[in-house]
Amino acid sequence: MRILVAGGAGFIGSHTVVELAEAGHETVILDNFSNSSEKVIGRIEAITGKKITFYKADILDKGALEEIFSKEKIDAVIHFAGLKAVAESVQKPWEYYENNIAGTLTLVDVMRKHGVKNIIFSSSATVYGNPAFIPITEECPKGQCTNPYGWTKSMLEQILSDIQKADKEWNVILLRYFNPIGAHKSGTIGENPSGVPNNLMPYITQVAVGKREELGVFGNDYNTPDGTGVRDYIHVVDLAKGHVKALKKIEENAGLKIYNLGTGIGYSVIDIVKNFEEASGVKIPYAIKPRRAGDIDTCYSDASRAKEELGWEAENGIREMCEDSWRWQKNNPNGYED
Ligand code: NAD
Ligand code: WQD
Fold it and tell me: What's the pLDDT tens digit per position in 259-283?
């Protein structure tokens, strides 16, 4: 298939373009590079040995989208393009609703005008809020999000589901990611946060490479075995492969489907620090800090639906996740900057 990958220069998008190419699909990247670098294109080309078509464009720009859909024969869209910083979304709710929701509405409008009615959407475990039960299956009711970012995901799930209900020609697959970390084995593409990392693993790798002094552990009085937050970390390459499997489902006229993409295993913050130290041989100094607003005790998936219906299951364990995050950071201490 020929796939438009919106947000394809980002962390998860770039890894997915590699896996799509390796599975024999053609890809076209659309990205405004607001949170990524054009250098990623050359890195993907080096990994895959294939020329990558890309457009520097915004999903809010209807004219640009019209041109791309007129020129490229697109079969399906994988939609990663969005702003994703939780704390920033609390400060800039309008920007988040505009970019993520208005952007998606624009993209979907141009898609339907061009008869492209297949979409895989990047959703998040954040839609479960404080989950009603653990491990979280897709039947777990959606919850109250604690920030505008989370609401954009929850609302976009509803919007895309309603569009599919009204027009059965649409195939909509909502993928709820748990906590993606790791990087491609080559160590040439990876997560590249701008400024101070919000997420745990990039913060740890920046401490390891000497860019930050110590990790702040946000709370050790949670209701978990060691008191620190427990999450379901998943290797980004496994996540990327999940999209290739979801595309296969689209080819079977899936209708509307929802899948958790996680490993089903929960690790605490301290587990991650210890595993990273073992994998890298680098000590990570840390200090216990107050809880971070909006955080929950525990979040991990039951990903058996994806296994049964997509034939997908995460292959990499925590060791590979830590080794590969470290290889990327060590080889690229400043990410894609020189
Ligand atoms: P990322 O920021 O690395 O990638 C998103 C890409 O979209 C970036 O390259 C950015 O430049 C681009 N983009 C943003 N707004 C755009 C617009 N208006 N027009 C065109 N391009 C635009 O983030 P990521 O970690 O790769 O996440 C990809 C998707 O998965 C996002 O939608 C995110 O919300 C979702 N997600 C991420 C996580 C996570 O922890 N990383 C977890 C769950 C869901
Ligand atoms: C993991 C654990 C923190 C940083 C976020 C979004 C979610 C999804 C994935 C997009 C928690 C602790 C973290 C640090 C720490 N993104 N921590 N010190 O919060 O599970 O999920 O990313 O959809 O929507 O909310 O991930 O990596 O930020 O935190 O102690 O410097 O690490 O408290 O327990 P989170 P995270």
Answer: 999 999 999 999 999 999 999 999 9
Residue with CA at minimum distance from ligand 1 atom 33: 84
Q: What's phi and psi for 285, nearest 5 deg?
A: -65, 140
The pTM of the full predicted model, rounded to 2 decimals, is 0.99
Residue 338 pLDDT exceeds 80: no
Residue having the nearest C-alpha atom to atom 10 of ligand 1: 35
Spot the catalytic one: 149, 177, 203, 267. 149
Please report the atom of ligand 1 found closest to the CA of residue 177.
Answer: 43
Sign of CA dihedral 1, 41, 89, 176: positive
Would you say the CB of residue 179 lies under 6 angstroms from ligand 2?
A: yes
What is the secondary structure of 281-304 as a DSSP string?
A: -----EEEEPPPTT--SEE-B--H
Ligand 2 contact, 269 CB (< 6 A) = yes
CA dist 157 and 175 (Å) reads 10
As given in the structure block, the two tokens for residue 199 are 């997420």
Tell me: pLDDT of 191 over 80: yes
Residue in the structure block whose two tokens are 């373009």: 17
Residue 96 annotated as catalytic? no
Tell me the three-class secondary structure of 214-266, residue by residue.
Answer: CEEEECCCCCCCCCCCEECEEEHHHHHHHHHHHHHHHHCCCCEEEEEECCCCC
Question: Per residue in 39-72, pLDDT tens?
Answer: 999 999 999 999 999 999 999 999 999 999 999 9
CA–centroid distance, residue 230 to ligand 2 (Å): 10
| Strands 230-231 and 267-268, sheet pairing | antiparallel
Phi and psi angles of residue 95, each rounded to the nearest 5 degrees, phi first: -60, -40
Q: Which of 78, 29, 20, 72 has the alpha carbon at shortest distance from 47?
A: 20
Ligand 2: nearest atom to the Cα of 292:
33
